[in-house]
Specification:
The chain is mainly α and about 210 residues long. It contains eleven helices and no strands. The protein is globular, with a radius of gyration of 18 Å.
Length: about 210
């Protein structure tokens, strides 16, 4: 229910018809139906990410610093819930925030400070959780639960990165196709192209 409420809020600038359609898509999504029942960390991460975007767009519309603080506090929570999802969210919110406030020095540097603190807190908490649950800073509980201690989520070895990509891309594409409405990506791209009044916010939400 909270996810649907947040979805309605994000769609508000584009009118009632868009709000209703967005809520309908979210409510009938196979992702929502499956993961809200069997995989609670996925749904919690979805709610956290949506709330993060809502706080970010609130800050952009009102130019209130409190929205940035809330946004990146939720980013930290998202990273601790699902590290990869949270990291992607962090990159999106960081880029959007700094680009939006690039001509407002006070808000830019305040936001930059919050982003740095959130990054430090996220890394420290992530590594601490790994150490506590698996005994290794670089192996997450997800990898440990799968019965393998060789999968490293944090790696700078090109060969290991390439191996991970080669072994998960088919699964990632299959899951994306199964859990996505037909032509949803096409519709998002078309909307970003045709939108004029709130294009910046629409691109952020679409990404």
């Amino acid at each position: 229910i909270l996810l649907l409420v947040l979805t309605d809020y994000l769609a508000r600038p584009w009118g009632l018809a868009t709000q209703n359609l967005a809520v309908l898509f979210a409510a009938c999504s196979a992702y929502t139906v499956l993961y809200s029942v069997g995989f609670l960390s996925h749904m919690f991460a979805a709610v956290t990410a949506t709330a993060c975007l809502a706080a970010l767009l609130y800050s952009v519309r009102t130019e209130r610093f409190s929205g940035i603080v809330l946004c990146f506090s939720l980013v930290v929570l998202a990273i601790e819930t699902r590290p990869f999802t949270g990291a992607v969210l962090a990159l999106l919110c960081t880029g959007f925030t700094l680009y939006t406030y690039r001509q407002k020095p006070k808000l830019f540097w305040q936001s930059f400070a919050v982003i740095c603190l959130a990054g430090i807190a996220s890394a420290a908490l992530f590594l601490a959780a790994n150490k506590i649950y698996t005994g290794n800073l670089l192996i997450s509980p997800y990898a440990y639960a799968s019965g393998s201690k060789k999968i490293q989520e944090i790696a700078f070895n090109p060969a290991l990165i390439a191996w991970n990509i080669a072994n998960v891309w088919r699964w990632a594409i299959m899951v994306t196709l199964c859990f996505t409405f037909p032509f949803l990506f096409v519709a998002a791209g078309y909307g970003c192209w045709k939108e004029t009044k709130h294009r910046r916010e629409l691109i952020c939400v679409a990404l």
